[in-house]
Amino acid sequence: MRNTQDNYGWVSRSLHWLVALAAIGLFGLGLYMVELTYYDANYQTFPHWHKSIGILVAVLMVLRLVWRLISVIPNPIPGGKPWEHKAASLAHFVLYALPFALFISGYLISTADGRSIFVFDLFEVPALLPPVKGMEDLAGLIHEIIAWSLAGLVVLHVLAALKHHFIDKDRTLLRMIKDPN
pTM for this structure? Predict the structure, then answer.
């Protein structure tokens, strides 16, 4: 269940892959949504899903961050280059920071008019700020820039994992895929 000095536990692995799949889905849904017109049948539905899933992923990211703070972080694979370890640490920090910035900007887009966000019509996340003129557009631009930046970093993250697996032939990728036992 828990991480060890050498491997990630199932909690870390599960949170990693759940957030990864949701983030990819949200990115694709976001790309599709910006092309919707007012008269499209999904004009209301898809943004509702995007916001609802986004809120749930934000909760998962908080859980993931807490778990990372209270768990052992596996040691780097022996034999790696020092610059790779530093780059990986920086990339992991940014892979945590960007989603939180994305959640904040998405929240500001959604609550710019002072209305709450209804999460799958089960509960609501209230608007904490009064309506702010122009906030939706500015937050939307920031949201788009962060989303593309995160997508680019995810691609680099995947390429680095594949490089470790196929070129370096080390256990970096395997530690996030399966239990070593």
Answer: 0.93
